[in-house]
Amino acid sequence: MLKTNDKAIKIAEYLLRIKAVKLQPNDPFTWASGWNSPIYCDNRISLSYPEVRTYIKTAFCDLIKENFGMPDVIAGVATGGLPQGALVAQELNLPFIYVRSAAKAHGMGNMIEGHYSKNQKVVLIEDLISTGGSSIKGVKALKNQGLDVLGLAAIFTYGFEIASNNFNEINCKAPTLSDYSTLIDVAMKNNYITNSDLDSLQNWRINPSNWNK
Q: Which CATH architecture has domain 4-210?
């Protein structure tokens, strides 16, 4: 079994190779929040590559066992965590449920879809952590239905302080398969970025809301 750090490096390499992550410090993206960003991450692209998809699925299973033991059920955050969570649940031979971004506007008005029981131990799967807002909303929805949320696992995190603070506030452990610092190291070693890009990328990570304004 690969060490956790080796897995983080491998996943960063995959995400860069398939262009699930794009680094453009000189031609930044604009997020929905209005932040300017030198990075854009779309982990859904990994689903189109069987080798990458399988590696991430296996790494998720290892991460869950190492951090939480074996839960009773796997949950996914719609939409990014839904396919990833289903793959993990299949691999672990566990039931799968998912959390909507908002309660269904008709029918039963469900926020959570699928069969579950109160007090079941659940791990929530997410594809990406930025501020942690959607993830925490999912955690709270599961807790409100009486589920025992062991924690959340995600493919990638930007490592913002606000996200760490948000997860600490609700006492939720949130390990990830890879992270921004690892990605930047891999990008430098593999010539995806230059030395002149590095300061800009590191400054964004420290103060994303005011970067490049």
A: 3-Layer(aba) Sandwich (3.40)
